[in-house]
Every structure is written in C-alpha cells, then in structure tokens.
Amino acid sequence: MRKVALITGVTGQDGSYLSEFLISKGYDVHGIIRRSSVDYRERIAHLEGHPQFHLHYGDLGDSMSLVKVIGLVRPTEIYNLAAQSHVQVSFDSPEFTADVDATGVLRVLEAVRACGLEKECRIYQASTSELYGKVEEVPQNELTPFHPYSPYAVAKLYGFWIVKEYREAYNMFCCSGILFNHESERRGETFVTRKITLAAARIAQGKQDCLYLGNLSSLRDWGYAKDYVECMWLILQHDKPEDFVIATGVQHTVRDFATLAFHYAGIELRWEGEGENEKGIDIKSGRTVVAVSPDFYRPTDVVNLWGDPSKAKKELGWNPQRTSFDEIVRIMVQHDMQKVAADHVAGVMRTNLAEYLEKGLVK
Ligand code: NAP
Ligand code: F7E
Can you give the pTM of this predicted structure? Predict the structure, then answer.
C-alpha cells in the first residue's frame, strides 16, 4: 500500500516534527513551502536531501498551486498545518488570517476533490483549543460549545466546520484535531513559552536585563509538540473519521511557566505587585527581571484553557502525559541556554572575522 503524506506548513514547528515522525513510519513525505527572501527552513534543513523528503512551492492562498501539487503527489494522507498561527497577529492582519486559516482549508478540500482523490486521501485539519475561547466550561472536551474570541479563532472555526461539512456531504475521511497549546525548542520565538525560555537564558548569561510580558495569569494546558504530532497520525489511522481533543489535562499560568523557566536558567524568582505593576524579582540580586507591558495585552484574551483528552486516550490509545510540564520547560531552557551561548560565540567569531577582513587577513 502506498504511504504518501503531503504536509502544508512543513516549515513550522509541527510540520518539522511530523515530517520526522512520518519518515520514520516509512512514508514518502512531501511538504509545501512558500518563497521567502530570507532563510526560513531552519527546522527542516536536516531533512533536505533525504530520499523520503520532497518540497514543492505552493501557498494556501493559491488554489491552482494546491491542485497542481496534490495532482502530482497524489497523497494518501494530507496534514493541513499551514496557518497564520499567531493569535495576537490575527488582530493586526484579520483578513489575511481569514484567507489562510479559513478559506485556505476550503481550498485544500476542493483541490482534493478536483484531483478525484476524495475517496482515497485522508485529511487532517489543524484545529485548535482557541475555538473554546471565552470558555463556557472547564475542562473542555469534544462536546464543549465553541466561543471563538479572536480573528484567528473565528477563522479556525470556519476550518473546523467546513471539514465536518465535507465529511458529511461527500463522505470524505477528513477530521480535525482540536489541539491545545503545544511547545518545544522549535516553537516560534514570539509565543509566550519560547519568549520566556529565550529571555531567561539571555538574562542568565547577562545578554538581556528584563523580560516584558502581558497577561501573567492566563491559564494554558501546555503539551510537548513531539508527542502531539503522533496524535495527528493516529487520528488518520482511526477506523472512522472523527474529531479529537488533544491536551495533557494539566493547567498552569504564564507566571508558573516563567517561574520554572528562570529556575532552570539558575534564577529563583519572587513575585511582587499586581496587574500592570506585577514584577518578577531575582531573589539573589534583587533585580527586576520580569515586568508587565500592556503592549502584550490582547483586545480579547483567552484565559482559561484546560483540555480533557479522555477520548484520545481511550479511542486512540494515546498517552497525554508522556512529557510532563516540568520536562517541557527543562528541555526548552536547556536548549536556549546552549543557543544563547553559541550565538555569543558565533557573534564573537563574526566580530573577529570582520576585523580579519578589514586587515586583509581573510579573503
Ligand atoms: P507555525 O510554527 O506558525 O507554522 C505555520 C506554518 O504555516 C509555517 O510552515 C508557515 O510557513 C505556514 N504558512 C503560513 N501561511 C501560509 C500560506 N499562506 N501558505 C502556505 N503555508 C503557510 O505553527 P505550528 O505551531 O507548527 O502549528 C501548526 C498548525 O497547528 C497551525 O495551523 C496552527 O494554527 C495549529 N495549532 C497550533 C497549536 C500550537 O500550540 N502550536 C495549537 C493548536 C493548533 P512559513 O514558514 O513560510 O511562514
Ligand atoms: O499566548 C499570554 C497571552 O501567544 C498564550 C498558538 O499556537 O496556541 C497558541 O496561541 C497566553 C495568552 O499562544 C505574553 O495573552 C502573556 O493568553 O503563547 P501564546 P496562544 O495565544 O495560546 C493556540 C492553541 C493556537 O492555536 C495558536 O496557533 O500567554 N501572554 N504575555 C503572552 N503571549 C505572548 N505571545 N507574548 C507575551 O508577551
């Protein structure tokens, strides 16, 4: 049986881990990439040249490119991970977010139909806990009502419903994974967890004075991205097409994450003050290393996400607790401590190189 996967969003955090996972399962993996003026393939650079890994140019805003790639590759599974995935950015670019995160999903589904693959190709849609938004119950499961609370969430809600519609209208095997926040050392640097682990590493190494954050009391159910991509695959191997909540079932605040991240970077924090005046103080030096900036507040913020992964555990046999919260923070900080140190060495080398070039010692 052919095992050919097509991943949109292959350059992203999840796309890179999913590529590795599917290659290890014997799949031929095809990824869709966009052209960019800068090198943005860092997360998949190690896979380029692998005989089971292939890249194609395309864009979720460009139907013809999707029809061409899907017609050429004839995938047996599609993982639609491409999205403008930053909630705060969706307030600044709502139309673009809707085009990619809502209409983009429709374009993928229609491209599969246009290529006559609707009976043989299974489709995974990257849905999100942001659908629960201004939450109507805790914890949230597959039956919890949706209440999207950002342009990103509203766009993703369309994606969720159009997938359900195509499943029922055309009998397609297409499903949504309602994934709660998942993080890793490959997480984009402007999401709160990675912003914290990088800053903690920089502050610990004397490269930054203070970290500015928004809502410290926001609650998230944070899991490890490497564990979550396995679930995307399990959802498509299930005997019937269904939607699943993927979460750890454990909740923490942004403040908890920061406290633990600084601990792993060698700094113990004490918290003082409230709201905009709250500060994280390095107990040893007495310096303020975390402060609040209203610049990072959102027009509407989702503050109480907590997933109930019982269905995925029972029906997919997935272990939601494989990597603990503590372990995720430790892995990310350890990675960023090394990265900051290496960037420093590289910076010193660059400085030296500039000097050598100036002196004509290096051509
Ligand atoms: P990410 O790191 O931001 O990656 C997003 C990917 O989408 C990138 O490869 C990006 O390409 C691509 N992309 C954006 N716009 C595109 C377009 N117009 N055409 C083609 N590709 C485009 O996101 P992630 O964390 O891996 O998340 C993967 C998916 O899961 C997203 O759909 C996200 O909304 C959803 N999700 C994520 C989480 C989470 O906690 N990580 C939770 C629930 C759902 P470039 O590299 O070219 O920008
Ligand atoms: O924010 C608060 C912020 O940007 C988490 C995406 O992958 O997960 C992600 O969306 C919380 C929010 O992720 C800062 O207000 C405080 O309450 O890391 P985040 P997100 O918005 O939860 C979902 C499931 C997705 O689907 C998305 O694609 O942290 N927060 N201070 C901050 N957030 C950021 N980014 N920066 C701050 O300084």
Answer: 0.96
Q: Convert 276-288 to b/e letters by CB count within 10 Å (16 or more is b).
A: eebbbbbeeeeee
Name the token pair of 79: 């993982």
- Average pLDDT of the residues in 335-341: 97
Using CA atoms, how far residue 235 sits from 48, 64, 306, 313, 316, in Å, is: 27, 28, 21, 11, 7
Give the model's pLDDT for residue 363: 43
Residue type at position 8:
T
Output the pLDDT for position 345: 81
Query: Distance between CA atoms of 242 and 246, rounded to whole angstroms?
Result: 13
205's tokens: 């190494």
Residue 155 CA to residue 127 CA, distance in Å, equals 10
Count other C-beta atoms under 10 Å from residue 90's C-beta.
Answer: 24
The single residue of 79, 124, 149, 152 carrying the catalytic annotation is 152
- Residue written as tokens 């499903």? 175
Whether 152 is a known active-site residue: answer yes
Residue nearest (by alpha carbon) to ligand 2 atom 23: 181
Half-sphere exposure of 240 (CA within 13 A, CB side): 4
Cα 191 to middle of ligand 2, angstroms:
6
Pick from 103, 75, 98, 222: nearest CA to 151:
98
Q: How confident is the model over 328-352, as a mean pLDDT? A: 88
**Preceding amide of 294 cis, omega within 30:** no
